[in-house]
Design brief:
binds nicotinamide-adenine-dinucleotide, globular, 9-stranded mixed beta sheet, about 350 residues, 6-stranded parallel beta sheet, alpha/beta, 10 helices
């Protein structure tokens, strides 16, 4: 039973708590805001998962700041992640620290300090790109390993989702101006909030042996009215170390949502979907000379996080070689570099190179 502290009693904090409790881990959720702790116990957790779990401890940050935990999960707004993570590591030495996506703001401030501190404490840092651990992704990886694609030619990602759903899950927010969501500099906007889209492109590029992203061009539709400042639509062109060219399109406009990856090879294709149908992720694929196959993966919203927490358990028990984990700090950092490059490209209307 791993002793776990979840910082941030909001939407993701509750999902993480539920996933940890399903593995019978010892869970403490803390927050700076007493109202958020009350909301967790009396509203979010029971309404999502049926009833409150009285084994979960609730605390203010200050009450558990110096206590040691095996796992610390940081589920607070992006512009607080790095200072909270550094503060935690100054006060304690968790074995694993899982930081929510996006890792930081596009400024990428203090990431070296965090990495050095984690190394000195022996803490394995992870970034919570949970879609790299779900069943549809693992299945697509098996198909790639079997060689059904032949030579990979392109990856194109669409991560199009109106953010009404996010505000539906946060009825206490008055709108984008009321949180980080309405500010790209704080990690909001479509590129920050939907950064899974870049991360999954990068994940499949690595799996295909096409390497890290080295070139970025982006065009964005910015909403900048004095009250908010964010990209509501972003079209991002990417090139990788080994020459693969592809795209990522993301917005906070499209309803119903579409979250899909198309990987094209010279002998076949793979399409990967989140919520392809209500209650199902999917992979659709074809190899040369064969029929198109549609494979569905039944899941609920809590399932989106279950594999990831099991993966964290395997990192703790060293069943997984941490350096190769799809949620390692390095992978989350690579996504931040592309987010930063995308904003630079869109603002300055130029191609941006990332030195690898
Ligand atoms: N992996 C995913 O699919 C996924 C899904 C949802 C959210 N997220 C990410 O999780 C993070 C939080 O999002 P959310 O929707 O849960 O936000 P939220 O607003 O619902 O909750 C954030 C909570 O953090 C608390 N908080 C703020 N500063 C704090 C501090 N210094 N110490 C302790 N608590 C603090 C707030 O009081 C609030 O209760 C974001 O980075 C978001 O992108 C990821």
């Amino acid at each position: 039973m791993h002793k776990t502290k979840i910082i941030g009693a909001g939407s993701i904090g509750n999902h993480m708590a539920y996933a940890c409790r399903k593995l019978d881990w010892d869970v403490t959720i803390c927050d700076i805001d007493e109202a958020a702790l009350d909301r967790t116990k009396n509203d979010i957790y029971p309404s999502r998962y049926g009833s409150w779990d009285s084994n979960i401890k609730l605390a203010l940050n200050s009450e558990v700041e110096t206590e040691n935990f095996d796992v610390v999960i940081i589920g607070t707004p992006p512009d607080t992640h790095i200072s909270i993570a550094i503060n935690e590591l100054k006060n304690s030495s968790p074995k694993v620290m899982l930081i929510e996506k996006p890792l930081s703001t596009p400024e990428l401030e203090n990431l070296n300090e965090l990495e050095e501190l984690a190394k000195s404490k022996g803490t394995k840092l992870c970034v919570s790109y949970n879609h790299t651990t779900t069943a549809n992704t693992l299945f697509a990886e098996e198909l790639i390993a079997k060689g059904i694609l032949g030579t990979p030619k392109s990856i194109n990602v669409q991560w199009l989702e109106h953010w009404g759903g996010i505000f539906g899950a946060h009825p206490w927010l008055a709108g984008p101006h009321d949180s980080y969501l309405g500010f790209y500099k704080r990690g909001g906007g479509s590129t920050g909030e939907h950064s899974h889209c870049l991360n999954i492109f990068q994940h499949f590029s690595r799996v295909l042996g096409m390497g890290e992203v080295t070139e970025v061009t982006a065009t964005m539709d910015m909403v900048d009215d004095g009250q908010v400042s964010y990209d509501q639509n972003a079209v991002i062109g990417l090139k990788t170390e080994n020459g693969l060219v592809g795209s990522v399109i993301t917005d906070v406009l499209t309803s119903p949502a579409k979250k899909a990856v198309r990987i094209q090879g010279d002998k076949g294709f793979i399409e990967w979907y989140v919520n392809y149908k209500n209650g199902f992720d999917a992979v659709i694929y074809q190899s040369e000379g064969s029929e198109i196959v549609e494979k569905l993966f039944e899941k609920t919203r809590p399932d989106d996080f279950q594999n990831e927490i099991e993966h964290v358990g395997e990192i703790l028990s060293e069943k997984i070689e941490f350096q190769k984990s799809p949620i390692s700090f390095e992978t989350g950092l690579q996504t931040m570099k592309v987010i930063q490059a995308a904003y630079n490209s869109a603002m300055n209307k130029q191609l941006v190179q990332i030195n690898q």
